[in-house]
Amino acid sequence: MSKILQSLKLALLNVGYAKLGPLWDYDDVISPFIRLYYITEGSAMVYHSNEAIELKPEHIYIIPSYTFGRYKCDEYHEQYYISCLEEIKNGYSIFNFSSFIYESKANAMDLYYFKRLLELNPNRQLENNNPKVYDNRPTLMDFEKRNEELSPSAYMETHAILEILISRFIKDMNSQSTKSNVKKEFGMVLNYIHENLHENLTVKQLADFCHLNTDYFSRVFHENFGMRPNKYIQSKRIERAQLLLLSTNNSLKQIAEKVGLENLSYFNRIFKSHTGVTPGIFREERLQK
């Protein structure tokens, strides 16, 4: 585990402070980055990972990357927020290797870290608090230039603070169940799937990769990830298609090929079954907001 974490890179996207009301009401949000919140006043709700989580003052929260969620504020709340991209060698995710909690009572240093990160990275606030506006936008790619403009000391301190804050949500490794350990072992096959989404992936191919019987592999995969391998592959293809639709100028045919769904008609049908709209309408509606 420690060797894997040694390759962890965290890249800041946004940090800021927001005063939000009932307009903070968004459904079907999925982001390619980690979100962190520190609530200072009021309350709101987020729904993700099959949990309903009340955002409360003096608590910190994390939402993993590529997690479908809903955000709702009935009255008013104020929050420090952070968004960052994660990268581990060979394309892993830290969320594949550890169990996470999503809420924690803030300690004495948490507020300092949020404020310090904002001090180190001024003018990184979101221009619009609607996640469906800033998620996966072409401007998302501007973060690399902004991070390169930091001084070496500011860059290192920024990275260190992000690591400290994320570490607050990792469960004690000694308390992990056998199922969690199996999930950790499946990190390799998840990486293999993510690297080969453009290929014709089969369950037998994945089982062979893990040196497991096909039926056993499918059953254990379902136990740990809540869905069969084929459904997981399909969901990841649609997630990647969403990112490509909003962050590139690729044609629908090019995107379909890049996510392993070369038949454009089939791509349109599967995309609509996941999102409720066709790829073309999805791109048009999101980029016009």
From TrEMBL:
<dbReference type="InterPro" id="IPR018062">
    <property type="entry name" value="HTH_AraC-typ_CS"/>
</dbReference>
<dbReference type="InterPro" id="IPR018060">
    <property type="entry name" value="HTH_AraC"/>
</dbReference>
<keyword id="KW-0804">Transcription</keyword>
<feature type="domain" description="HTH araC/xylS-type">
    <location>
        <begin position="187"/>
        <end position="285"/>
    </location>
</feature>
<protein>
    <submittedName>
        <fullName>AraC-like DNA-binding protein</fullName>
    </submittedName>
</protein>
<dbReference type="GO" id="GO:0043565">
    <property type="term" value="F:sequence-specific DNA binding"/>
</dbReference>
<keyword id="KW-0238">DNA-binding</keyword>
<keyword id="KW-0805">Transcription regulation</keyword>
<dbReference type="InterPro" id="IPR009057">
    <property type="entry name" value="Homeodomain-like_sf"/>
</dbReference>
<dbReference type="InterPro" id="IPR020449">
    <property type="entry name" value="Tscrpt_reg_AraC-type_HTH"/>
</dbReference>
<dbReference type="Pfam" id="PF12833">
    <property type="entry name" value="HTH_18"/>
</dbReference>
<dbReference type="GO" id="GO:0003700">
    <property type="term" value="F:DNA-binding transcription factor activity"/>
</dbReference>
